[in-house]
Amino acid sequence: MASIEEALMVVDGFKLKIPKEVYKPSDDTFLLLKNLRVSKGEKVLEVGCGCGILALKAAKKAEKVVATDLNPIAVLAAKENVKLNRLTRKVEVREGDLFKPIRKNEKFDLIIFNPPYLPTTKKNKVEGWIEKAWDGGPTGRKIIDRFLAEAKTFLKKGGRILMVQSTLSNVEKTIKKLSRKGFQVNILDKKEFDFETLVCFEAEKVE
């Protein structure tokens, strides 16, 4: 990673090295960090981990954290940040798209997801891996709907999803889909901007 341009940050007490092609912690990340609750002994999955900051925080109490990302540069960065913060015994980073790196028999108490939720067109696409962090397709739901189709399979009974989403990609539709799949959804927090509102919510598997 020495040849890759990096930013150095300290977030929530964790030292982070973040290459140019990896999403830097931003308002959506901080909203999740603020509302992240992990009980001692839990097994946690973070889908789309980026630099790994949420996985690192979860590991402070969790028994085990698995973090995945499609971006190979993010995977390398997250692995290095795990070592930098001396959490290699608790955090495993895997490369792959959504749940593909997860074994069929793996079940988690908590799944964390900060999805690509911005509606995009061909005109506003950019080159490189970094685009994957926010490219939600024409409606902003391309990745969100794929995640919702599979997430329940990898949760234990009573397991939770902690997620953040923009009102630009129809949060109400996400909540309705989760409710139909047997989840109880609670809005935890919001952050308002001129053009959107970020909504952080938790969905508990009750069926």
What's this model, at a glance?
This protein has helices at 27-35, 53-59, 72-84, 142-150, 171-180; strands at residues 6-11, 14-19, 43-47, 64-69, 91-95, 108-113, 155-166, 183-192, 197-205.
Task: Write a structural description.
The chain contains five helices and nine strands, in the order ββαβαβαββαβαββ. The chain has 207 residues and is of the alpha/beta class. The strands form two sheets. The protein has a seven-stranded mixed sheet with strand order 5-4-3-6-7-9-8, sandwiched between helices. Helix 4 (142-150) links the parallel strand 6 and strand 7. The radius of gyration is 16 Å and the shape is globular.
Q: According to CATH, what is the class?
A: Alpha Beta
Summarize the biggest pleated sheet: 7 strands, mixed
Task: Give the low-confidence spans.
Answer: none
Q: Looking at CATH, which topology would you report?
A: Rossmann fold
* Tally of alpha and pi helices: 5
Give the distance, in angstroms, between the N- and C-terminal Cα atoms: 44 Å
